[in-house]
């Protein structure tokens, strides 16, 4: 009986990775749960985790880099040196937006902007059918 249970456990453990490989999640800008750079042009001012931008790598003298706004987990923001490469933002000033602002303000506003853009797209001309 003990041997039978061991075999079942081995089978269960061996099959777990196979089940997990079929799971895929796609999250894009404007979706709850998205982490990465966001564009705040024409959006209400963001609530920030830190009042000053964080810069990990120095930029050459005379080079001015525009700050970027990112939505990342608070643990990544606090250890930004470790995570800036993941977001390709090590050499520029970074502002971290708060989770509540992103989900409560940015996500709904982004949805409105996207819906407006979708409604303003001109219809494609229909191709004539070959007779």
What labels would you give this structure?
single chain; 4 helices; 131 residues; globular; 3-stranded mixed sheet
Query: Compute the gyration radius: what is it?
Result: 23 Å
Number of strands: 3
**Which term fits the overall shape?**
globular
- Secondary structure category: mainly alpha
**Percent range of helical residues:** 25-40%
**What is the element string, with H for helices and E for strands?**
HEEHHEH
Number of domains: 1
- Put simply, the count of helices is 4
The main pleated sheet reads as: 3 strands, mixed
Q: What is the terminal-to-terminal distance?
A: 75 Å
Overall pLDDT score: 79
Low-confidence stretches: 7-24
What would your notes on this structure say?
This protein has 131 residues and is mainly alpha-helical. The protein has one domain (27-120). It has four helices and three strands; from the N terminus they run H-E-E-H-H-E-H. The chain has helices at residues 2-20, 74-78, 80-83, 99-120; strands at 36-38, 68-71, 94-96. Strands 1-2-3 form a three-stranded mixed β-sheet, with no helix packed on it. The longest helix is centred in the C-terminal third of the chain and has 22 residues, at 99-120. The model is unreliable at 7-24 (pLDDT under 50).
């Amino acid at each position: 009986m003990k041997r039978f249970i061991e075999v079942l456990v081995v089978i269960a453990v061996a099959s777990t990775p196979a089940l997990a490989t079929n799971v895929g999640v796609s999250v894009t800008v404007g979706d709850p749960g998205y982490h990465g750079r966001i564009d705040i042009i024409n959006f209400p001012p963001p609530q920030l985790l830190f009042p000053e931008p964080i810069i990990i790598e120095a930029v050459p003298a005379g080079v001015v880099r525009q700050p970027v706004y990112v939505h990342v987990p608070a643990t990544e923001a606090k250890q930004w040196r470790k995570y800036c490469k993941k977001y390709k933002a090590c050499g520029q000033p970074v502002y971290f937006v708060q989770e509540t602002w992103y989900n409560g303000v940015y996500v709904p506003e982004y949805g409105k902007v996207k819906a407006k853009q979708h409604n303003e797209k001109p219809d494609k001309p229909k191709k004539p059918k070959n007779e």
